Amino acid sequence: MDFVRKAGNIYADDLNLWMSLASYKLPSPKVKSEAFLPGGGIMELDVPLGSIEPLVFQFNTKGMPPTLHGKFGMSLSERRLWTVYELLQDELTGVKRERIITMRGVYGEADPDEMKGRGMQGYAYHIKSITEYEDV
């Protein structure tokens, strides 16, 4: 079965970003490693250190949702539960499945899009300091 991501939505506590969500990028877990060059060798290798690099969840909105934007300065160290719901569909059989990704992190950055005249600009948000991450 080849499942394709068809749709997605983000929830955070009382926030539902369905109407303003433009795009999102899930965290990509990477193993921390250290470069090692054996003595007399000509090939360097990465040795895993047994830990994961910090995770960052990024998403973009259309416009500036006040319910989300207003939460930035209010709780700088409060970790909030962020939930992403995705619809997966098998392209061959048409079978649909739901995927749920949950993470607990800090609302760390809000980066406004460049202003370009009269079009709709939004914000790029970054959720950092993720302590819990589960992909079901």
Characterization of the model:
By secondary structure, the chain is an all-beta fold. Helices cover 3% and strands 57% of the residues. It contains one helix and nine strands, in the order E-E-E-E-E-E-H-E-E-E. The chain has one helix spanning 66-69, and strands at 3-12, 15-16, 21-25, 31-36, 45-52, 57-61, 80-90, 96-112, 123-135. A seven-stranded antiparallel beta sheet has the order 2-1-7-8-9-6-3. A hairpin with a 2-residue loop joins strand 1 and strand 2 (15-16). The radius of gyration is 19 Å and the shape is globular. 11% of the residues are buried. The mean pLDDT is 89.
* Helicity range: under 10%
What class would the helix/strand composition place it in? mainly beta
Strand order of the largest sheet: 2-1-7-8-9-6-3
Poorly predicted tracts of residues: none
Sheet of most strands: 7 strands, antiparallel
Q: What is the number of helical segments per DSSP (H or I, 4+ residues)?
A: 1
- What best-fitting shape do the alpha-carbon axes yield? globular
Number of E-state strands: 9
Distance between the termini: 17 Å
The arrangement of helices and strands along the chain is EEEEEEHEEE
Mean pLDDT: 89
Spatial extent as radius of gyration = 19 Å
Beta-strand content estimate = over 45%
